[in-house]
Every structure is written in structure tokens, then in C-alpha cells.
């Protein structure tokens, strides 16, 4: 009874705004930040239930990533640091849309019963809260806290302003029973980075083609500020941060950030002719996306983009090489070959040239619908699973089982063959598993891995760009009255509804050499996205344009 009235009284403080329907999309709930108080309160309640149900700590992150500063959003992280299980999404939506406090409370009780959660019982819930730099973040965080505290015995721990991947990392670590502070995060990243740098082959002084200078666009968000802190712990890199939320006057994600750079193929604000030829990188607003770019020699308004697909390809090449070294040099047969299932996961947005390249490397490539939750789940099926979206969100996952074997092998080698090439390869693989965020894609750890791999290869940005030539592509957004009218299948590559649209797309695509085109409703914005690829830029542009007229 106490629980019932506590929940009801709290819920009354957060009435549902009129005429809004909330859906748990590709990245949780997203909307105008001022409309989200009830949603965030209710998500707080749900997070507490999730923690009770799993008997572990969960996370709740308040961010709208690359979206405009007025937007905000909320997503729940499961105990392993990944996105909340998809089974709970329908309930999340039902709770968010319950018309009044009374029906909300009824739903909570019936859902708890269904899930076997005893409310007001012995068990207590623990939720880590984080938010990005958005002005609505503070008020929303308070609402989330009240939601959590409306479940008897629940505790909310405020991690403050953090990147999305930091929060997910903290949740994961907490449940592993190890230290979770921001400082621990910085230490783990900088130590594993140092380890990789120390294991670079000596003498690759690379005729001066590697420039230690790196300029990073922080999207006027949380990532730039965190990188300023992290870089103090790094040796061998000369990082300059621009558009960091601290000193910049700029607005979050406005004319800056990984999404702006990747979708528009343009340089962010505060980059110009003075930077021609330099290695540049860009984060998105919550620092879970990373792309590289270079201001081009010919025209300082245009850039050479190094997107998530090329980051993925660089990582895959490096890791495959380490596995080969590790397994090859056991010439005396002292050690067993380390068997591993290696796989790569992409979405339909992956550039066709990257997919060809990865297959040529001999890797298995799987395709899933857009959204990290799908990619991550698929990648977790492998011993080493790589996933990246073209927009720069991705990571590398290692299976528990494989890491144990790898550690064992590394110990054996330290005993029998210390300092050998295979020993070094084992140490590199272990360092990567510590550097790269096992919970979600992370711009900070991704950046350090890119830098370490370039150093290892002795590669300049130019060498990396030449790994393969991107097929020209174009992405457009089309505003429509009802985006849910478009229904897709086959990892979003085919339209089922409205009737006739797929025929029109096929007809247009057929006119172009190496043409490929698909459309899908965005999960984060009220739009339909059109993607087109063809053998020339003009052709890709024109294919995207003509298909977008059919969507309209
Ligand atoms: P939507 O709006 O569903 O396309 C976008 C990105 C996703 C993912 C989410 C979450 C594209 C084409 N889509 O989703 O890849 O990153 O945002 O932030 O980049
Ligand atoms: Zn993001």
C-alpha cells in the first residue's frame, strides 16, 4: 500500500503532455527536451524495475546524441552495459504513454507481477544516472531520480555529465565488481593505449609521414571536455581539441559534430584552410560516434571523409594480422593454435566498397537493421565481433571464453617464448580488449585505437584513405506526414509498404551502374531517410533525388 501511494503521488507530479506519443526508437525515447519530464520519470520507474528483475545495477542516460540542442532523450542500459533488452521495449512504450497517473500505476503493478518482481520486497535496485551537456538535462535528471525513488528501496547514483559510453562502461564494470569512477575509465584507456604504443615495431620511423598532430572536433558537447582531461595522460600524441563545450561559444551539434561531417561531407565549424592535409577527427554530441576527415587540398570547403566503415576496416585488418602472427609462429608446435570465430557486422548504410574489402580479407560479414542494439547483439555471437555503422558508431566485442584462452596463451608464451612476435601479438590483442569499450561504441577509445594502429602500421592518413576507394553515395532526409507508413524488410533494404514504392526504387536504381538505393523511416527523427550509391557522385546524387520524389 505504501508503494502504491508513493508511486501514484509521484506520478501526479509529472503529467503526460497533450497529444504526444512516445516510441522507444533506435536509441530510446527522443523528443523536444521540454516535453520529456513524464517520459523520463516513467523511465526512471522502469529502470528500477529492470534493476530489481536482474538483481544488478542498470543505467539511465539522458542524451539526444547528435540531435539539435533543444531535443533530449533517454535510454536504459542493461547490466552488461548494452542497450536494454528488446523484450522490454513494448512495456517501456506502454508505460510512457499511459494516459494518466492512475493507469500508469496499474500498468507498473501488472507488469511487475508478470515479470515476477516483488515490489516493496527485500531486494533493492541501483541505477547509475548520466547526462550530456544539454540545458534540459539537469531537470530531466531530477525527474528520473524521482521515478527511481518512487520504487521503494531503489537508489539512484548520479554520475554527472558523462559521455554515453562512459555511463555504459560504468554500469558494466559495476556489475563485474570492479572500480567504476571516471578516473578508472581514463586510467584503463590511457594504460592500454600506452601498452599498444610500446608494442609498436621499432624503426618504423616512417620517413616522417606520420604526423603526431591530431585535431579533434568535440561537437560543442561532452566529448571534447573529456578528451581534454584524457589527453593529459597520453604520451606520443599531440591532440588539439576544438569545439569543446568548455571554452567554445558554439552550440551543441550546430555546424559541428560527427553526424554533420559524415552526412554532409563538410568540415565542421572552426576548421579551415589552415588545417589542409592534417589528420582531423569529429565526435558527436554524446561522444559515441567517431569519424576522421581531412580538409582537401583542392577545395577547403570539401573534405576527404574517413567514416565508420573505414575505421572498421582498419581495425579488422590490424586484428586479423595479430591473430595470424599469434597462430603462425608456433613453429616448434609448443603451443596450440588459438581458434577464433571472427565476424564483422554492418548495416545497409555501409559503403559497398567497404563490404567488398572486408570480404576480401576473408571475413564473414553480416548485415542487420540500423541501430546499435541489432549490431551489438549480432557481433556478440563471435569470439571477436566487429561492428560499425557508417556514421562512426561501433566497437569490437570479445567473448569471455576467447579472452580466457587468449590470456592463457599469453601466459604460456611469456613462459616459453617471452618477447617473441607471437607473444607481442597476444599482448596487443589483450590490450585492445581493454582499450575498446565492450559496452557500446566509444569515440574516445575508438580514437586511441585508431591512433595506435596507424602508429603500428607506420601509416599516414593518406595510407589509410587508400585502403579502398569509397563508392560515391548520397543520403537525404524527406519530411513526411507519417513516417510509419513506410514498412521495410530484409535488414531494411526492401520496402513492403506503401505498395509500389519498391518497384519505383528498383526502376530508378536500374538506370545506374553499381546503383544501390534504399529508404527507411528514421527511428530518431520524424523523417524518411534515402540512401543511394552509384559509380559517380552525380549518379548517386541523382538516384537519391529521384527516389526521394517517390517517397514524398
Ligand atoms: P535513425 O534516425 O533511426 O536513422 C540514427 C542513425 C543510426 C543510429 C541512431 C542512434 C543513421 C542513418 N542512422 O538512427 O545509425 O546511430 O541514430 O543515434 O546514421
Ligand atoms: Zn551519439
What value does the Rg take, in angstroms? 24 Å
- What number of structural domains do the residues give? 4
Oligomer: single chain
Number of helices: 18
- From the 3D coordinates, which CATH architecture of the largest domain would you assign? 3-Layer(aba) Sandwich
Strand order of the largest sheet: 1-3-2-4-5
The helical percent reads 40-55%
What is the CA–CA distance across the termini? 53 Å
Bound molecules: 2-acetamido-2-deoxy-1-O-phosphono-alpha-D-galactopyranose, zinc ion
- Count every beta strand, where a strand is a DSSP E run of 2 or more residues: 19
Shape by Cα distribution: globular
CATH homologous superfamily heading of the largest domain: Alpha-D-Glucose-1,6-Bisphosphate, subunit A, domain 3
Describe it for me?
With 552 residues, the chain is of the alpha/beta class. It folds into four domains: 2-179, Alpha-D-Glucose-1,6-Bisphosphate, subunit A, domain 3 (Alpha-D-Glucose-1,6-Bisphosphate, Chain A, domain 3); 211-306, 3-Layer(aba) Sandwich (Alpha-D-Glucose-1,6-Bisphosphate, Chain A, domain 3); 309-317 and 325-442, Alpha-D-Glucose-1,6-Bisphosphate, subunit A, domain 3 (Alpha-D-Glucose-1,6-Bisphosphate, Chain A, domain 3, 3-Layer(aba) Sandwich); 473-551, TATA-Binding Protein (2-Layer Sandwich). It is 41% helix and 19% strand. The protein has 18 helices and 19 strands. It has helices spanning 2-12, 37-54, 89-97, 101-114, 137-149, 164-176, 182-198, 222-231, 258-264, 308-328, 352-360, 372-379, 400-416, 421-435, 443-457, 461-465, 501-509, 537-551; strands at residues 29-32, 58-62, 71-77, 126-131, 155-161, 213-221, 238-244, 280-283, 290-295, 303-306, 342-346, 364-367, 384-388, 394-398, 473-479, 487-489, 494-497, 516-521, 527-533. It has a five-stranded mixed sheet with strand order 1-3-2-4-5, with helices on both faces. It has a five-stranded mixed sheet with strand order 7-6-8-9-10, with helices on both faces. It is globular and about 70 Å long. The N and C termini lie far apart (53 Å). The mean pLDDT is 94. 2-acetamido-2-deoxy-1-O-phosphono-alpha-D-galactopyranose binds at residues 26-27, 65, 349, 370-371, 389, 391, 393, 522-525, 529. InterPro entries: A-D-PHexomutase_a/b/a-I, A-D-PHexomutase_a/b/a-I/II/III, A-D-PHexomutase_C, A-D-PHexomutase_C_sf, A-D-PHexomutase_CS, AMG1_II, AMG1_III, PAGM. Keywords: Isomerase, Magnesium, Metal-binding, Phosphoprotein. Interconverts GlcNAc-6-P and GlcNAc-1-P. One of its GO terms (molecular function) is magnesium ion binding.
